[in-house]
Amino acid sequence: MTNLKKTDPSPGAALRAARKEQGLSLRALSARIGMPFSTLSKLENGKMSMTYDYLGRLAQGLGVDISLLVSGAPPPSRPAAVGRRSVARAGQWPSTASERHLHYYPAAELRGKLMVPIIVDVTAHTVEEMGGMVRHAGEEYLHVLTGRMELHSDLYEPLPLNEGDSVYFDSAMAHAYVRVGDEPCRVLSVCAGEGIQRLAQSAGENLRSTPPPAENPKPAHE
């Protein structure tokens, strides 16, 4: 098992330690997970935000828990003030994009949250397209806002979920969101656990503030 030094200051340093312990060069890891060498280098050196999507692919490729890759970061401190709140207006969510999903982070500015809400546009149609399943310490609540999807895991058969359906599950179980059909699928995922808090804090540093695309865009010929 990978053992990281307590002095590791960031997810990038934790990634470097996990990679080196397995004797992998950046180029070898790049080839293994299909991620550009330049992207890996930026992630390790803290020049690019370590998003949930990136961490999922890296954890899958290295065969480790996502929380291990963010364990080098210091735990976020809770603010002393009581009664803090964050209001997110419709469609005004900071976001991060990847080849597989588009993530929106309501309340991204709040540090040390007990829960991390994420709105996800599910685009992958297979687990293979997702790059494999991911796991992270904690628990997760998933509610389908629009469209249809399946929740794949390493312990259960694929779970079909339609608009309005929800499921609460142990996110240490390897899992993946897979879209069913061609209609847009958007879900609300609420994650809890120390590892996901650190991830949200890291990802929140470079989020975009542009509005999300329409859920049902008109075809170009109309």
Q: Which terms would index this structure?
A:
222 residues, alpha+beta, six-stranded antiparallel sheet, three-stranded antiparallel sheet, disordered N terminus
**Strand order, largest beta sheet:** 1-2-3-9-4-7
Arithmetic mean pLDDT: 78
> What's the N-to-C terminus distance?
56 Å
Strand content: 15-25%
- Tally of DSSP β-strands: 9
Helix content: 25-40%
Give the structural class.
alpha+beta
Q: Which stretches are poorly predicted, pLDDT < 50 over at least 5 residues?
A: 1-8, 209-222
**Helix and strand sequence:** HHHHHEEEHEEEEEEH
Number of helices: 7
> What would you call the shape?
globular
- State Rg: 17 Å
Largest pleated sheet: 6 strands, antiparallel
Describe the 3D structure.
The structure is a single chain. The chain has 222 residues and is an alpha+beta fold. The protein is 26% helix and 22% strand. The protein contains 7 helices and 9 strands; from the N terminus they run αααααβββαββββββα. The strands form 2 sheets. Strands 1-2-3-9-4-7 form a 6-stranded antiparallel β-sheet, covered by helices on one side.
